[in-house]
UniProtKB/TrEMBL annotation, chain A:
Domain of life: Bacteria
Membrane in keyword set: yes
Keywords: Membrane, Transmembrane, Transmembrane helix
Protein name as annotated: Uncharacterized protein
Length: 378, 161
């Protein structure tokens, strides 16, 4: 086989069909959006500076005319507290990642010895067959790069809240609300609702496919908010948007009637925080059993949906959900530093029994060493 | 200012869209990512016009956009699937392509596609590609050589009845 010469390949590639050009108006709209985000970051700096001056001055003169920030209005976040001299401090981790120039950070681990012990878990060999494949990734370079790029900024906010409604240990509904910056999911396939002056965009594609309500809206500060729920009426959604209040980096849903009977209201769910540094998966093809362990700090309740059951996994609380393919998924935290998810097409009691044997294994565990499949970096 | 940008956009977009399409191996994603890269340039205008190699910058921003979207999209889908109690199982599905060359391009590793786009669409020299991607010139040469071989195989198959 004779490889192409350069001209021949250039001509061949010039014939490959490509898509359409974006209209200029669309680029201008998106550019304005990006500029607004930057200006808002600047506003944060101005307010922080005003506070720094106003509060000591009031204390010094003692005249009682203390500068008091106005309480945030419903649905409007307090400004992200930006100090220092950096001109751009996006509030969310996702927007910070986007702001960095192209970076390539994901590392596929060469062997199980590269995993931290808290993540290197496996079921006991008496409980299930050995894994047929196993692999892991290390994304610490991404976190480091984002941290270095925004070293002059305060830590990014994980402004998110999860409302869990349950009865007798079975989850009836979950509602998750999070500030997502520029990270929008709702596209053209959508319908819209009005909540006062706020337009709520409801996804009619991926959300509905997953049997979920997925909605987004923008507040007056330019922040995009995302709501995901296992079920919610339009009236409930509008009420939530109109009554939601933010206090610093917390979201107060106490004014929403749907939260009145909530079993749990969890702030800072981890959904908007950094992703996992380590992700490790072991898969036993013969048993269709998959174990995934991460070291992120997302609450396990994010994995609950309608019908999810609260269970006990060897003394640790877990969440057991049936999936559409006839299998079961169990999520629990065997260690404060790790979250495990075990999925299999097996009886739920059997899955629980297997999960109860999951524990740390040494880096030279023969089952893991034999199954390990390091992939070439993308 | 916008008129300057409009001229700049009109002049660069054919090469950039083609380069991004080759680099990411997906026409729809390339459309979106190219638009995002130009929008970012406009948001910082006129700084974009002063770049030494604006097409290289646009390509890198677009490729990064695709990578970020793919990673975030995967995480979001995983989360939605978990909420819907439908676990993610081994599902990397490539789009079927009729055209053999296109299929071969899409099947190249990401780094190879990016180098092919830089070399044969943007017409950058090997040392310029090496500098842009932070690799050695030897790596660029060997990667391009392998890519040419793979693409030639695809074209031969296409032309053989």
């Amino acid at each position: 086989m004779t490889p192409f010469d350069d001209d021949e390949l250039a001509r061949a590639l010039a014939r490959v069909p490509v898509g359409a050009y974006a209209p200029l108006g669309r680029l201008q709209g998106r550019a304005r959006q990006l500029q607004v985000r930057r200006r808002l970051a600047g506003t944060g700096i101005a307010l922080a500076a005003a506070l720094a001056v106003a509060i000591p001055s009031a204390l010094a003169f003692g005249d009682g005319d203390v500068f008091t920030p106005a309480p945030p209005a419903g649905g409007t976040p307090g400004p992200f507290p930006t100090e220092g001299f950096q001109t751009e401090c996006p509030a969310t981790y996702g927007d910070r990642l986007d702001a960095i120039e192209p970076i390539e950070t994901l590392v596929h681990l060469a062997g199980p010895d590269a995993l931290p012990p808290s993540v290197r878990l496996l079921w006991d060999e008496s409980a299930a067959p050995a894994p047929s494949t196993a692999s892991g990734t290390d994304n610490s370079q991404e976190t480091d790069a984002v941290g270095a790029a925004f070293a002059m900024c305060p830590a990014s906010w994980d402004q998110s809240v999860l409302v869990v409604q349950s009865a007798d240990g079975v989850i009836e509904r979950t509602v998750h609300v999070a500030a997502v910056g520029d990270q929008r999911l709702v596209g053209d396939e959508r319908r819209e609702l009005e909540a006062g002056s706020t337009r709520i965009r409801i996804d009619t594609e991926i959300g509905e496919q997953a049997g979920l309500l997925l909605a987004e809206w923008d507040d007056a500060e330019g922040m995009t908010w995302r709501l995901t729920s296992s079920s919610m009426s339009d009236d409930e959604l509008v009420e939530l948007v109109q009554t939601m209040v933010t206090e610093g980096d917390e979201i107060d849903l106490s004014g929403w009637s749907g939260a009145q009977d909530a079993e749990q209201v969890i702030q800072h769910t981890g959904a908007g925080d950094r992703p996992a540094t380590y992700v490790y998966t072991a898969f036993a093809e013969q048993a269709q059993l998959q174990l995934t362990v991460t070291d992120d700090n997302r609450t396990r309740w994010l994995d609950a949906g309608a019908g999810t059951r609260e269970v006990d996994v060897a003394g640790v609380p877990g969440l057991l959900s049936e999936d559409a393919a006839g299998g079961w998924t169990l999520v629990w935290q065997p260690d404060p530093a790790s979250t495990a998810m075990l999925n299999g097409v097996v009886d739920p009691e059997e899955l629980l029994a297997i999960a109860a044997t999951v524990g740390r294994v040494p880096s030279n565990d023969q089952r893991l060493v034999d199954a390990w499949t390091p992939r070439a970096s993308q | 200012m916008d008129e300057d940008f409009a001229d700049w956009y009109t002049a660069l977009r054919p090469r950039v869209l083609r380069a991004v399409t080759i680099a990411v191996g997906d026409r729809d994603l390339a459309e979106e990512a190219t638009a995002e890269a130009f929008a970012r340039a406009l948001a910082r205008w006129p700084a974009g016009a002063a770049l030494d190699s604006p097409v290289t910058w646009l390509l890198k921003v677009a490729v990064n956009e695709v990578r970020t979207r793919w990673r975030r999209g995967r995480l979001e889908r995983r989360h939605l699937q978990r909420l819907a109690a439908e676990p993610e199982r081994h599902t990397p599905a490539a789009e079927p392509r009729d055209d053999a060359l296109w299929a071969a391009v899409a099947a190249l590793p990401e780094r190879s596609r990016q180098m092919v786009a830089m070399r044969y669409v943007l017409d950058l020299a090997e040392h310029e590609i090496a500098a842009a991607l932070g690799v050695t010139r030897g790596t660029v040469a060997s990667t391009l050589s392998r890519a040419r071989q793979q693409l030639a195989t695809a074209i031969t198959r296409e032309e053989t009845p």
